[in-house]
Amino acid sequence: MDLTTLTIDEAAALLARRQISSIELTSAVMDRIRSSEAWVHSFITVTEEVALERARAADERRARGEAGVLLGIPVGIKDVILTKGIRTTAGSKILGQFIAPYNATVTERLLQAGAVCVGKTNCDEFAMGSSTENSGFMITRNPWDLERVPGGSSGGSASAVAARQCLGTLGTDTGGSIRQPAACCGVVGIKPTYGRVSRYGVVAYASSLDQVGPMANNVAGCAHLLAAIAGHDPRDSTSVNRCVPDYAAQLDAGIKGLRVGIPREYFVEGMQPEVEKAVRAAVSTLEKLGAQVSEVSLPHTDYAVPTYYVIATAEASSNLARYDGIKYGLRQDAESLLTMYQRTRATGFGSEVKRRIMLGTYVLSAGYYDAYYLKAQKVRTLIRRDFADVFATQDVIVTPTAPTTAFRIGEKTSDPLQMYLSDIFTISINLAGLPGISLPCGFDAQGLPIGLQIVGRPFEEETVLRAAYAYEQATEWHERRVSGF
Amino acid sequence: MEYEPVIGLEVHAELLTQSKVFCACSTKFGAPPNQHTCPVCLGMPGSLPVLNRRVVEFAIRAGLATGCQIARYSRWARKNYFYPDLPKGYQISQYELPLCLGGAVEIEVDGASKRVRLTRIHMEEDTGKNIHDAHGDASLVDFNRCGVPLLEIVSEPDIRSAQEASAYLRKLRIILQYLEICDGNMEEGSFRCDANVSIRPLGAATLGTKVEIKNMNSFRAVERAVDYEIKRQREVLDGGGRLVQETRLWDPDREVTRSMRTKEFADDYRYFPEPDLLPLEVSDDWVAEVRRTLPELPDTRRQRFVREFGLPQYDAEVLTQRKDVSDYYEAAVRQYRNPKALSNWIMGDLLRLIRERKLDTALVIHDWPVAPERLAAMVELIDSGEISGKIAKAVFDEMVATGKTAVQIVSEQGLTQISDEGTILAAIEQVIAANADKVAQYRAGKDKLFGFFVGQVMKATQGKANPQKLSELLRAKLDA
Q1: Under CATH, which number does the domain B421-479 receive?
Q2: Which whole number is the average pLDDT over B264-274?
Q3: For residue B121, what is the DSSP state?
């Protein structure tokens, strides 16, 4: 049996019955990483020794009578999430040798649940990008077609799951960085409601939008991982104190009577026809499963991308000020303080990061603040209101995750605006702080996966997961696996 | 031309909370460098601030004590600039929606009282400290102070002289000390002041060009710097020159201000609401609760001392400079009601001792050399004629040295005053007999010798003779 093809549920069942050990499972995953990583490049750091040690510890915990779905399950963690004692780079040369001095809350919670971290996954530098091409270290390739991008910024997290290099991963999502790569790589990924998961120990990109979420090869896997990391954290003032439901237990309740809104603004000129076709077909499937489908409108959709690029860059310009060569990370010595700052940041940051720092600095500057930042905050309120209006009559909103399937490596690097449009369907959901999932709903003519996005009300992840699960059970897309290498 | 100075002050007061404003690190001063640090106050990647509730409580205290409106909804903001002592590259502060608005501080200069209005009071975090010249060419940074809570107290430009500026600062400091939220130590930097100074032709309605002065580390420095700056600006204008809006540093050695940067090079701090913290909501109940715990403030207390104890203005002023001293005074008066005598003892012997032993460096004195009840008991012994005022000085010293009560000391050392006329007369006769020549001189008109005889009799009675009785009896005897 190839243990790397297991879902989290299947592996958990085998571990519980002692048919396999975590050491066996983790070793199988390590073998798979060794044989595939030269092609895919999912990981910035592979932590084999630590992983095997933790696998052994997980087996011991189980021998002592401990149980738990994640006990002994190998997972990957996006490299913007701090892992104590392990290099955490955020995909940036400026943190190239940075050893995290503490664990992020989500890391801590995964460790408590007994998950085994096999490595730190590649991503766009500071999570800024939609293709993982902005990583300061390597280009991750889409396992379905090595000439194509895995999406981004959590590209390594998505490709690792698709390439069976681990059973689940954590990513972060600021404008679509979990859902869009999940769509590109044919896996499932959920961005929770803002405030559902702690951001403590997650390298900040845009604080009012960032959220950690899981990726796995099916909906149930995401439900288990989300249950482990969600919940209030006193160290993050923006995390919300609400109890966490047992997501996995409610998955198969069905969607009879579920009111599904289809926003007309999300089927736009220029999107790939196969994507639209697959999504429309998915909507019919939901209807057959008992959902009541209606067309709805989110009138401020067009303003989402510009609004996002004002707010996110403003926050980023401030969040990234700490990488100054003084305390940790890269330093380029110079004769004066100012020159040291300039050289360190010029050398340490990549061009997309510099572009966003400059944009953000500009929109916060005296004389421009009202016209850009303040205006963007007002538009953000309008976008949030759009969703609230729709959710007054609908339970979920269904859209494509991205306008196209995975594009070619290098195709959009010279045109940032084209790149920014990859997130056109995901960005509004961050601005509104809502939970959204992406799951496979078909393949295009090149055999590239297509993603379906389901969005829910704030803190109604269970509804989103239930709808996704119902669709997944009714279709076979998620069973299609990458072959070769 | 005649000019009118227009001055506004910005005070930064470090708050005496146990832990920092956004993490659990200690705020203690004087630890080895970088001992009181954690991922949050070091600005490590991924760390997030969590507000210390005590800081808000302290800020509300300050706001209520100065008559501010307490905003039920205020917001945190980031002030962005690069400097090595600022690990995040931004300072968490408050900007467009501060916690306290309005308010005023009453000051008195040359007998005239005046209200200096406050613009606002807001909370923010302190920075670390850069240390130069300690390690060759390199500079070092100590982050112990980074994240220590600060209040920024901004006055309206209501101040018109260096004297008023100083009076305002002293008053503000006393208020914060009464509230027990700031120790007010200017030398250690826990109470810092920047001044905005401009001048305008007397009677003009518009303001002149404003200059900000920094680096004033004592009340004296503030007075000298403001005076210097007023004079400098007057000379520039009288000489036909123009003033530029700039920041100037006070040089205490040369007693001049020097330009640090002009407006064109001023930082653009790019303030925006801090996304890592929720807006601060303060309930009516919370404000009411803080109001209930406010102590009586120095002005009210001073007036009450005059009214209730009949103290002279001067005494009341001195006794209410510190809350602990005025508490001490009240405790003593409660024990034995001779308000003026107790005031004299406290203002004189006790406070001198406090200063000598540097006990007043603490915000609140807990280890008094003599408990207030015991000082009161000693004054009672004087009033009852048990001991003389002169003996009392010795008794007081003995109380401080041994920790014994006055009664104990008096009885152990036999210091009870001699009021018995027979005993005193016997001593007088003895002295007269031994100094026949001096008696003759006195009787011949050398009045000054009276003091000599008093001294001799005192000596003969080991200083215990009741001075009044001694004087009466001696005079009767000599003049007979």
Answers
A1: 1.10.10.410
A2: 89
A3: E
B89 touches chain A (CB under 8 A): yes
Residue B121 main-chain phi, psi, to 5 deg: -130, 125
| Predicted complex ipTM | 0.96
pLDDT tier for residue B478 given thresholds of 50, 70 and 90: confident
**pLDDT tens figures, A362-412:** 999 999 999 999 999 999 999 999 999 999 999 999 999 999 999 999 999
Sequence-ordered alpha helix ranges (H) in B266-367: 284-292, 298-309, 313-319, 323-335, 339-345, 351-356
Round to whole Å and give the CA distance between A122 and A152. Answer: 10
Q: Write out chain A residues lying below 8 Å of B41, CB-based.
A: none
Q: Which residues of A are catalytic?
A: 78, 153, 177
Domain extent listing, chain A: 3-252, 302-377
What pLDDT, on the 0 to 100 scale, is given for residue B446? 87
Q: How far apart are CA B81 and CA B409, in angstroms?
A: 65
**What are the phi and psi torsion angles at B2 (to 5°)?**
-90, 135
Residue A48 tokens read as 């084999």
Residues 6 or more apart in contact with residue A113 via CB below 8 angstroms: A68, A69, A70, A71, A228
Distance from CA of A433 to the nearest CA of B (A): 13
> DSSP character for B340?
H
The class of domain A3-252 in CATH terms is alpha beta
Average pLDDT over residues B67-93: 98
Q: Which of B45, B48, B268 sits opposite A365 (nearest CB)?
A: B268
- Give SS3 for A112: helix
Of B88, B275, B277, Cβ closest to residue A321 = B88
Up-side HSE of residue A252: CA atoms within 13 Å toward CB?
A: 4
Strand B272-273 and strand B77-80: pairing? antiparallel
For chain B, domain boundaries:
3-288, 296-408, 421-479
Of residues B46, B80, B277, nearest to A318 (C-beta):
B80
User: Which residue of chain B has the CA closest to A80?
Assistant: B46
Mean pLDDT value of segment B209-219: 94
CB contact under 8 A, B82 and A341: yes
Q: What's the pLDDT band for B1 if we cut at 50, 70, 90?
A: confident
Per residue in B429-447, pLDDT tens? 899 889 989 888 988 888 8
Q: What is the CA angle B357-B361-B364, rounded to 5?
A: 105
